[in-house]
């Protein structure tokens, strides 16, 4: 009988996951409400704006122009999010997305992304994270993993040093076997979603590959092993983008033929 509870919990989690799918059709475990996540995103975004200095207005207009062009191509219900983007003065080439549609770009990323199409690939990727509800899935998976480890600890009856050692091993297995692969999967999925989004808005999807080639040159190696990384390697990302490029190019050509030719002046 002691295994009934974890089995019931597992069955419940599977049932919940089956009720939700990502934009690419992948099953998801989503335990938190959109309102909860959006409020958390708003609070985190406000904190970012308090802690990091804003870039100049020309950079803000540049990023906003690109984001507006992409958001304009989203379905009407997805346009209702409070889409905001800010550029922050920071040398690290980074970008982030938060639930609710809040996005940030570092000026270091603008140094590597040399034209509007490359910046669009970053922005569309971040929008892809939001549309796929990756923050919700990540938080839900962490909650389910912690609950599962707690159940295993209680069921094993181990205490003292032996029990702590077992839980340490289980915790490491959960981190490297569950949490990080999920993150790599999210990154690859956001790449796929973002590639189509930027093409639909009239940005050249081929520039997404050029961006990651720039990132490779800028990084100079030193990346962690892929199995311990929260992101796919640059080479893996380029391969994934290349695999989806023919479909994105068809969308891009259709967008250009329909008159979608964004022109966002670089500062």
From TrEMBL:
One GO biological process term: proteolysis involved in protein catabolic process
Keyword Transcription: no
Signal peptide residue numbers: 1-17
Gene3D superfamilies reported for this sequence: Metalloproteases ('zincins'), catalytic domain
Alphabetic keyword roster: Hydrolase, Metal-binding, Metalloprotease, Protease, Signal, Zinc
PROSITE patterns: PROKAR_LIPOPROTEIN
Gene Ontology MF term list: metal ion binding; metalloendopeptidase activity
InterPro entries: Mito/Outer_Membr_Metalloprot, Peptidase_M48
GO cellular component assignments: membrane
Cofactor(s) needed for function: Zn(2+)
Cofactor-binding details, from the entry: Binds 1 zinc ion per subunit.
Peptidase M48 domain: residues covered: 60-243
Family the entry assigns: Belongs to the peptidase M48 family.
Entry protein name: Peptidase family M48
Organism: Vreelandella subterranea
